[in-house]
Design brief:
This protein is of the alpha/beta class. The protein folds into two domains: about 5-145 and about 280-335, 4-Layer Sandwich (Metallo-beta-lactamase, Chain A), CATH 3.60.15.10; about 150-275, Rossmann fold, CATH 3.40.50.10890. About 25% of the residues lie in helices and about 25% in strands. The chain has ten helices and 19 strands. The longest helix is centred in the middle third of the chain and has 17 residues, at about 150-165. It is globular. About 50% of the residues are buried. Residues about 330-335 have low confidence and may be disordered. The protein binds zinc ion. The site of zinc ion has 6 residues, from loops.
Length: about 325
């Protein structure tokens, strides 16, 4: 199937469907609810139920007032202008999905943002055999490899307990949708009370509906950094909040949980003493494994280190390209966490 790449997005002309378009379109597949994938006011929006609901919340009522929402839960299929569309888990944030497009004899998969490691919250990725893969490669360089779910959990809990033992307050920085809820859930499942920034707790209802609890938590309050003598609580907040934490008179120690935590400059950039390299994207070898497991011969690399990753795949005999409209790293840090 011919795929068109333009500054407006990825377009499957044969079936009139845009994939995570950058502007409003008549029909759009939304792989997940991060801003760089789910934006605009579309005629029809197709995605998993969690993605569509969170997209509607973030876009605002006016933006989606005339949008026909077409929920496509994991494993289910619909017909679309002569093709069959199937939604598959992608283990990125809650609701994130790959799209399998079957058209004639051809099978095409668009990954959206994806990882192969089991996620802290959400469904495990299912890799489908296909001919043509349109894949993200946010961390498509050999320097990137990330902790497993178990390793990340151990690091998060250990840092919180170490801080408590020394009378300090641990503060975890994570992006508002995805990482924040995962950290809060991990802490809660180990009996650690938390204080949560509103940009993160806003999405708790969807995670709770999917079965992920948050235990003893309360909203962050302006004077939180000055409160003492209370139950020890770990703070879970967004990276933009670090200046407030650093200005506090309370002894606050910061942990940064992100794929970027594996970069040399992460400590200086975030002010974090603890760097926990855990991402909702695949590391380099996961991305290679995804290509291999799908048995694909043709790959288009979109989002991230596309040129380099496509070149590495080409050296391994894959017909791989980096469409020029998508040759830059995402500027939205949340998207590339
Ligand atoms: Zn994303």
């Amino acid at each position: 199937m011919h795929v068109t790449y333009s500054p407006e997005g990825i377009y499957l002309g044969a079936i009139g469907l845009w994939l995570d378009p950058r502007r409003s379109q008549p029909a759009a597949w939304l792989s997940h609810a991060h801003f760089d994938h789910a934006r605009g006011s579309h005629g029809t929006a197709i995605g998993t139920p969690d993605t569509l609901e969170i997209y509607a919340l973030r876009a605002g009522e006016a933006a989606v007032a005339h949008t026909r929402m077409q929920p496509l839960p994991y494993g289910e299929s619909i017909e679309c202008n002569g093709a069959r569309l199937t939604s598959l888990p992608a283990a990125h944030i809650l609701g994130a999905a790959q799209l399998l497009v079957e058209h004639g004899n051809e099978r095409l998969v668009y990954t959206g943002d994806i990882k192969l490691r089991p996620p802290l919250c959400g469904a495990i990725t299912r890799v489908e055999p296909c001919h043509h893969l349109i894949m993200e490669c946010t961390f498509g360089l050999p320097i990137f490899h990330f902790l497993s779910k178990e390793e990340a959990t151990a690091r998060i809990v250990r840092f919180a307990r170490e801080c408590f033992d020394e009378g300090d307050t641990p503060a975890f920085l994570g992006y508002a949708l995805g990482r924040g809820q995962e950290i809060a859930h991990v802490l809660a499942s180990h009996g650690i009370a938390t204080t949560i920034h509103g940009a993160i707790s806003r999405y708790f209802p969807w995670y709770q509906r999917a079965g992920y609890g948050f235990g003893d938590w309360r909203p962050y309050q302006r004077d939180e950094a000055a409160v003492t003598g209370d139950t020890p609580r770990a703070m879970v907040t967004v990276p933009s909040f670090r200046a407030t934490l650093q200005a506090s008179t309370r002894r606050i120690r910061i942990a940064y949980v992100s794929g970027w935590a594996s970069m040399d400059n992460a400590r200086a950039r975030t002010g974090a003493e603890e760097l926990i390299p855990y991402s909702d994207h695949g590391g380099f070898h996961e991305l290679l494994d995804l290509v291999q497991q799908s048995g694909v011969t043709k790959v288009d690399a979109v989002h991230g280190f596309t040129d380099t990753f496509a070149r590495i795949l080409a050296q391994r005999g894959v017909d791989a390209h980096a469409p020029s409209a998508f040759g830059e790293r995402g500027s939205d840090e949340e998207a590339a966490d």
